[in-house]
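Batch manifest, entry 17 of 40.
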Amino acid sequence: MKLIFLGPPGAGKGTQAIKIAQRFQIAHISTGDMLRAEIREGTKLGMEAKGLIDRGELVPDDVILGMVKNRIQKEDCKNGFLFDGFPRTIAQAEALENISAIDYVINIEVPVETLIRRISGRRMCADCGAGYHVSTYAEENCKCGAALYQRDDDKEETVRNRLVVYERSTKPLIDYYTGKGLLHTVNGNADIDVVDAAIRAVITQ
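Output type: structure tokens
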């Protein structure tokens, strides 16, 4: 099974992707995670990408496509994979067709103000990497004792810019995949388990 999850930043793609990937024993491929790993390791690619990500801008297609092509050739992709955050542009979608076929494209919809509230409220632990949200955890320090911080790309101004970039670059993918008969839209403004059930209903029909 080969899936794509579409949706704006904060729609819950990552959360749902983890659940579906575990249930169906397929690889969860997040280009965002791959890029952040490069940044943590201080690679040349990571340093180039960091400035773009911090401003909410897109990383060039050739960089992303190179990472994706290498990733889907790994052993854990033999049963299939789920793309979380890729493709983001029509050009990437067209290039992906030359790399692999896709079975379903899931579009997760959430109102804009809900997205901003979700993302700008995120906090990360500087030490252990644990994640929190100010709506459910009001402390300034992680449970491990280290300080919590807000990622640069989670600040409200950057979030709004990320949503503008999404509207301009990624939303055309909805029309693209609708035209190919692959797109299925689910309401992401619901409990995690409700969204999960809606996605499973699509891919097991």
